[in-house]
Amino acid sequence: MEKLGTEYGGWVVPAQMNLNENSIVYSGGVGEDMSFDFLLQSKYGCYILLIDPTSKALTHYIESQSYYNNRKLFTGNIQGSYYDSIQHATPNFNKFAYANIGLWYKKDKLKFFKQHNQSYVSQSLIANMFGNDYDIVSVDSVRNIMIQYGHTHIDLMKLDIEGAEVEVVNKMLDDNIHPTYLLIEFDLLLKNKDPLHTTRQLIERLITRERYTQLAFDNLNITFKHNPV
Q1: How many CA atoms lie within 13 A of 141 on its CB side?
Q2: What CATH architecture applies to the domain 2-226?
């Protein structure tokens, strides 16, 4: 196993995964740390669809191209180790696409709640996660996004979507979509916002019904691998 990316934004994954230039990756929750995406794309040459309706995240993605073209520094709330982590990566931006939309269990327009500290990038579709100020954003399901982009499968999905993970993943599984590698930050449980124990129920579903094996546990950032029959 290895950790790709910064301590804040990285993920523990197998040192060698069954990914290549034809692989499709969905990265839900971009924020202002794309270290995992840059290092993953550099290593395997895969296609990565970035999914995040946050304006600061889109700005960060646009600035990342300037960083790799001429080392122009990022604006925003950048982690101290970020530059050290990404400086030697060689991402191919022709293999990236950006969906300015939120992940949810259906197509809709919803409140996207901001944090009290306006310098922080993360926002949430869940009402009690952050503050009361919000934007209105478009959201959609994994299945509908796959149809829109013409994808028939997902090789790796990363989700850091601030509490929406349970709704999104349950609907994805109901739609019979099983990414080979599934990386989820379970924010509802991490932030003590899960009184109905929906996180535990989802993890049990993944392991007992959907044939996923847990490969890594990093402070409720859990890496799973699907084991088809």
Answers
A1: 16
A2: 3-Layer(aba) Sandwich (3.40)
